[in-house]
Amino acid sequence: MPLTVRDLSESALLERIFPRLARAEAAVVGRGDDAAVLAAPDGRTVISIDTLVQDKDFRLLRENGFATTGYDVGWKCAAQNLSDINAMGARATSLLVSLTLPGETPVEWVEALADGLTDAIEQLGATGCGVIGGDLGGGTEIVVTAAVTGTLEGRAPVLRSGARPGDVVALAGTAGRAAAGLALLESGTDIEDLGEEELGLIATQCRPEPPLEAGPEAARAGARAMLDISDGLIRDAGRIATASSVAIDFDPEALSELARPLRTAGRLLGKSPLEWVLGGGEDHGLLAVFGPEITLPPRFTAVGSVSAGTPRVTVGSQAPASIGWDHFAH
Amino acid sequence: MPLTVRDLSESALLERIFPRLARAEAAVVGRGDDAAVLAAPDGRTVISIDTLVQDKDFRLLRENGFATTGYDVGWKCAAQNLSDINAMGARATSLLVSLTLPGETPVEWVEALADGLTDAIEQLGATGCGVIGGDLGGGTEIVVTAAVTGTLEGRAPVLRSGARPGDVVALAGTAGRAAAGLALLESGTDIEDLGEEELGLIATQCRPEPPLEAGPEAARAGARAMLDISDGLIRDAGRIATASSVAIDFDPEALSELARPLRTAGRLLGKSPLEWVLGGGEDHGLLAVFGPEITLPPRFTAVGSVSAGTPRVTVGSQAPASIGWDHFAH
């Protein structure tokens, strides 16, 4: 029998978690008081909150035997929160993590979650960021909520509302990989039968890698609008279109390029790779809009253009539905 | 059949929630982007996170027919988070609220939760504070997490570690009322049979009223240590004692005074009111330590004293156990 959460007091569990957590450089007062105090050198704090729920946002164990580890959940929690700060053109400074844990959760699983948080922060390049506070409690299912803070380092935040006709739409990071990975997991395909390319897609689903340098770089380069792709290119581009009152058209060639690494998985499952690119979230790529005169920052690739007109998103000037994309299916 | 969460899209549900939420004055960028941006005029942000879980921190319906309303949960969520900011001597500036909701949750319950958040912010006096962001998702039980931010307005934060021998220990707000209210709810006593005094105790359990002016006032008056009482006088005083390396002794007369309004409930349930005062949390009163030369701010009453010695908490120089307090029972 593994040691479980109910075998330990709250303070004993915290003693096992704390040493595994990265320290936040911006902490004026760290963990252990009623609240933490965070430096905000430019007089502003960027802040967001995001939750992962067992059997909704991750499955502990799938029918094909694939187990989501605590490490994966910790990594994903950090990644998706850090991505929200990135999408404002800011640099993450701290996380506060609230864990709701059933008594039967193995302590090892929780320790792995702490390791996943720390490794995501370090390996994704969120230098100086750390866990500054948290909360621990019981429940019937695992719920992991993180609040994340960031600093704009004196820059203006990059909102969704600044796109103008004539602008270039560009992507940093990937699109559709996490959705293809999820489809592979849900297909019940035996993990043993998958090749390296497919395992890579599953890895993107479990441990997404938002391009954390790209957000501040885009802001410095003068990006006029930006968000992180969490619900798919079409939906998320639609949010920029609506907020900016512009039309966005994607370049079919660029989308084909994004779909290329998903072809084998598509053949295996009998699915269209383009569907994953258009509708899949969770890679946490950055979609940014730049003026036509701007040289795109190194991590960005042009994928579309902005024009005047009723807010809408098209692909090669065609409605997504006409190329087989059904938004109700996503 | 009431309208439930699963009958509405996420955006339709948000449209019902947003108009009910107070706006944060410190919002540079408010809701609707990847993250919010909060003003931090003195270059620091105080921050904390706290979670309420159905059937752990609140029961939707008790055997005696007492239903915890969405309003109560919203109020309590705001109150306990605002209290953490208060306990640092700071003023709350914003909340971010993440809701995990089963599909069968009535939309009315969620709307009432939003009203409870807003009313707590306003009626407890957290002027200028509002809900600056959030997250919405599904689960099998209701989980409400809030992150809260605050500003020190240029003051030093009041930590737990500054108490010195000779200092006075003082309390703002109440102690033991919420615990007595919970005991009444758990006793199965018919609500109809309870008098106004007992209903008042239940109200403190469901809608605690942390004294939000008292934290900044204590900081301005020079409080050397402070925390909010969430686990009872003995345990929470023990945290100051440990962090400050001092001994704390409570004045039995002052504790009797705190127990007085709990006597009827104690008689009804055959319990000692003093137990509730010593071991009960959730009133979110403030326990602060002042130098002996300080005139206590108006909301504070002296309840004990600090002396040199091994960190410990006594009542009239006696160990709490010797007066019948069993910390394992709490």
TrEMBL record, chains A, B:
Question: Which positions does UniProt annotate for substrate binding?
Answer: D57, E282, W325
> Annotated pathway, please?
Cofactor biosynthesis; thiamine diphosphate biosynthesis; thiamine diphosphate from thiamine phosphate: step 1/1
Binding of Mg(2+) 3: at which residues?
D34, D84, D228
The GO terms this record gives for MF are:
ATP binding; magnesium ion binding; thiamine-phosphate kinase activity
Entry binding sites for Mg(2+) 1:
D50, D135
Which positions does UniProt annotate for Mg(2+) 5 binding? D231
Sites binding ATP sit at G134, D135, R160, S230
Cite the EC number.
2.7.4.16
Instruction: Please tell me whether the keyword Cytoplasm is annotated for this protein.
Output: no
What sequence ranges are listed for the domain PurM-like N-terminal? Answer: 32-151
According to UniProt, the reaction catalysed is: thiamine phosphate + ATP = thiamine diphosphate + ADP
Question: What does the UniProt keyword field contain?
Answer: ATP-binding, Kinase, Magnesium, Metal-binding, Nucleotide-binding, Thiamine biosynthesis, Transferase
Chain sites annotated for binding Mg(2+) 2: D50, D84
Instruction: Tell me which Pfam families the record gives.
Output: AIRS (PF00586), AIRS_C (PF02769)
PurM-like C-terminal domain ranges (all copies): 164-259
Q: Does the keyword Metal-binding apply?
A: yes
Fill in the misc note: Reaction mechanism of ThiL seems to utilize a direct, inline transfer of the gamma-phosphate of ATP to TMP rather than a phosphorylated enzyme intermediate.
Spell out the NCBIfam families in the cross-references: PRK05731.1-4 (NF004351), thiL (TIGR01379)
Family (UniProt): Belongs to the thiamine-monophosphate kinase family.
**What is the role of this chain?**
Catalyzes the ATP-dependent phosphorylation of thiamine-monophosphate (TMP) to form thiamine-pyrophosphate (TPP), the active form of vitamin B1.
Protein name listed in UniProt: Thiamine-monophosphate kinase
**What species was this sequence derived from?**
Arthrobacter crusticola
Q: Give the taxonomic lineage as stored in the record.
A: Bacteria, Bacillati, Actinomycetota, Actinomycetes, Micrococcales
Quote the gene name from the UniProt entry.
thiL
